[in-house]
Amino acid sequence: MQISNKDARLLLLNRQGLASPTSGVFNADKLQSLIYQLGYVQLDSINTVERAHHMILHSRADGYQHKHLKELHEQHQSLFEHWTHDACLIPSEFYSHWRHRFNAAKQKSASPHWQKRLGPDGPKIVSAVKSRIKKQGPLMSRDFDDKAKDKGHGGWWGWGASKTALEYLWRTGELAVARREGFQKVYDLSERVIDISHRAPKPSLHETIDWKCRQALLRLGCATPAEIAAYWASVSVKQANDWVKHGLKQDLIQVQVETASGAYKSAVAFETIEQDISELKIPPKQLRFLSPFDPLIRDRKRLERLFDFDYRVEIFVPEAKRQYGYYVLPILEGARFTGRADLKVHRKEGRLEMKGLWLEDDVVLNVTRKRAIAKALKRLAVFTGAATVDTQALLK
């Protein structure tokens, strides 16, 4: 079966929550459904415009508020924080499928990597840190005052051994992030954070691989084994390949996906793909600014292949070598990327600044597009609390 480039774009946009209007009533329950649809929402501390997790959710729902995410994570505990490709908030009902990742981290405890970071008394320190949290309740890294001499043992990001032990216990699933304060993790015992209904199931490794591959493909629509493996970043390409081979005898089919250049790339999809495509929504023509960490654009090769949009994050590129700017947001109009903008919120001044605007070669900055950009900037200003918008005459 061949899937046209138009349908491949629509399929991914629908699965990634970007085919519906951003308007409408929104609350914590709808947010839970949205994060379930995405599978996770990436956390990031950079606040040039808005932190990544908030920006990702705002780009899909005007009614999203910061308190909704806090409510789900800290009060309902229906989200847990852990790793996919990066630190993310994930539906708690998925928690049991992380147990193999926890076990893999535990098996690495004797590696030189961890021994160097924890120091010579690593096991004792790990035990002491866990015991203290068990007795005192939730604690942050700053609650552990490592002596200066401990800092020379390769501590994580300059942390001493106790603070590194917190990270180790979190990665192995013995601790969980109960909440964040000023973006700093507050750790507690997992059994006090994650409901027993989510901790009790013990799926086998085979069951978890099947679940992760199946859930990844559901959220991608059609994909290569490598893309399936990368979605949760905890399944190897070999495991994904084996899953695909087995699935082709059951409910998967091979497809050819048209790229933006007109070539075709082999992939797989569920056998319901024709019906799925027939039921796709056409995204509104609304212009949106996406976070540099949006899940739609995380796979840069897929982004360029399907949308003919070459995007790179230049945060870590020296200023003199940047092609565009420090925090450049992709511009999505309907089912097409039409450009990018360098934005910054000056919070003390209450001002959203557009420092630069670059449209794709065949995109014209006409009156209609100027209005759409201005509307999107106003929407973003309201969300970030900026009272004014400064475009530096770019839209005049």
List keywords for this structure.
16 helices; 396 residues; 5-stranded mixed beta sheet; 39% helix; globular; 19% strand; alpha+beta; 4-stranded mixed beta sheet
Which secondary structure elements does this structure contain, and how are they paired or packed?
Blueprint: E1 2-3, H1 5-15, H2 28-38, E2 41-42, H3 52-58, H4 66-75, E3 79-83, E4 87-91, H5 99-107, H6 112-118, H7 122-136, E5 139-140, H8 161-171, E6 175-181, E7 184-189, H9 190-193, H10 196-199, H11 205-220, E8 222-223, H12 225-232, H13 237-247, E9 252-258, E10 264-270, H14 273-278, E11 287-289, H15 300-307, E12 328-333, E13 336-346, E14 351-359, H16 367-384, E15 388-390
Parallel strand pairs: 1-9, 14-15
Antiparallel strand pairs: 2-4, 3-4, 5-7, 6-7, 8-10, 9-10, 11-12, 12-13, 13-14
Helix pairs in contact: 2-4, 6-7, 7-8, 11-12, 12-13
Report on this structure.
The protein has 396 residues and is an alpha+beta fold. It contains 16 helices and 15 strands. The chain has helices spanning 5-15, 28-38, 52-58, 66-75, 99-107, 112-118, 122-136, 161-171, 190-193, 196-199, 205-220, 225-232, 237-247, 273-278, 300-307, 367-384; strands spanning 2-3, 41-42, 79-83, 87-91, 139-140, 175-181, 184-189, 222-223, 252-258, 264-270, 287-289, 328-333, 336-346, 351-359, 388-390. It has a 5-stranded mixed beta sheet. A 4-stranded mixed beta sheet has the order 1-9-10-8. A hairpin with a 2-residue loop joins strand 6 (175-181) and strand 7. Helix 2 packs across helix 4. The radius of gyration is 23 Å and the shape is globular. The relative contact order is 0.13.
